[in-house]
Amino acid sequence: xxxxxxxxxxxxxxxxxxxxxxxxxxxxxxxxxxxxxxxxxxxxxxxxxxxxxxxxxxxxxxxxxxxxxxxxxxxxxxxxxxxxxxxxxxxxxxxxxxxxxxxxxxxxxxxxxxxxxxxxxxxxxxxxxxxxxxxxxxxxxxxxxxxxxxxxxxxxxxxxxxxxxxxxxxxxxxxxxxxxxxxxxxxxxxxxxxxxxxxxxxxxxxxxxxxxxxxxxxxxxxxxxxxxxxxxxxxxxxxxxxxxxxxxxxxxxxxxxxxxxxxxxxxxxxxxxxxxxxxxxxxxxxxxxxxxxxxxxxxxxxxxxxxxxxxxxxxxxxxxxxxxxxxxxxxxxxxxxxxxxxxxxxxxxxxxxxxxxxxxxxxxxxxxxxxxxxxxxxxxxxxxxxxxxxxxxxxxxxxxxxxxxxxxxxxxxxxxxxxxxxxxxxxxxxxxxxxxxxxxxxxxxxxxxxxxxxxxxxxxxxxxxxxxxxxxxxxxxxxxxxxxxxxxxxxxxxxxxxxxxxxxxxxxxxxxxxxxxxxxxxxxxxxxxxxxxxxxxxxxxxxxx
Length: 545
Prior knowledge:
This protein is mainly β. It has four helices and 41 strands.
């Protein structure tokens, strides 16, 4: 009984809509060239071995070929050894599969072909040993071709960004990008890695790769609306169709935490030097699995530029920005590290492999910051005081800049601590309770992409051996017969001359003072728990109304 059938359609129409009327020409609509001198060396030279298995649902012995691949994959790993299964003359075969059958001269099933050159039709007892030697020989050699593919998924389409680089010699060959579907159930049998569609066709996309060049291919292939994206995987192949040698290949499973989109796109050429990069994911990320070393910027000299990040759970979007201003008109790569426990989603899936976003900066912005001061001083501070000041910061070209303000000194408080503006006032408040007696020195750091500006803070706190008294503003000249004088003390008792004044829990006090015409001398006294006293004299002139 057939439970699910996926039949690829409209492949030719799709290819033609993108301008691929001929597979023998290098179309500039899909491939773009960049100089390796303008970008970091970031495409990893990993060699992969691809097994192409020709099979059918009616083939009674073909499962042996699947067992062979799974045994090899268990030994060498899924990212080193991969397979694709071409179904032939059955209900899930591709319409164009006859082109691949003819290319390899397949005459029976199963037929297993490793990296285009080693071929076996039918089952044999020694084929595990035979193909193990093929893998070991292939992996022992450094590949002539470096390949990496970024795979993103959105709107029922799989988007490919494929990067090719041949550093040592010219390589001529043909590129193919394929999609595969797993979990297809037919007559109680489950079929995996079933080839569904190919870009542009099995004739390949002909390319001549020159040294010192990076080739970027962009295309997309549709997904079936009835199939969950997690059942898909992709395979990119660069093959010499004359010798049948596969120079390199790369597999990617969509049964992982997939990236949906990025801003900017790959190889954008005028990215602002202080740009905030957005990476949107399909699913929410478990925040505790995000680590700063999982994403960073790489410059042309191979230096790592650390990044800062924030995550918007509602939009499932990760914002990444460099910690310093990038150089103008320079190529960089944003590296997003995949692998185990990387960007783990709420569905417990990881980012399958590394994701690379090459780009080139523009000339802007030019950032020039003006700071109002590099030194703040405060004299004769007591625990009753609330000393404060302001710092003024301006970007003289009118550009909005991101600032982070902080101090490791516990007695220095800054507000705001994060700013994104062309000009700002930073409020500085001191907390005398956390200051030592005598001279205190602290540093305020104002971080921007242009660097770090430091402001030295010096404050002298009076000794707390004797209690402090601070009076609120009061009239020095008045016509009233009496006034109220209020203030604050850190003593536990207050006196107005010989009379005790009530002191509240917060140290506040109020005293009523009767005045006579002329000069009046007022004296308040505070006593602390040590028995030490302090006095505060005041002079008030009463005049006739």
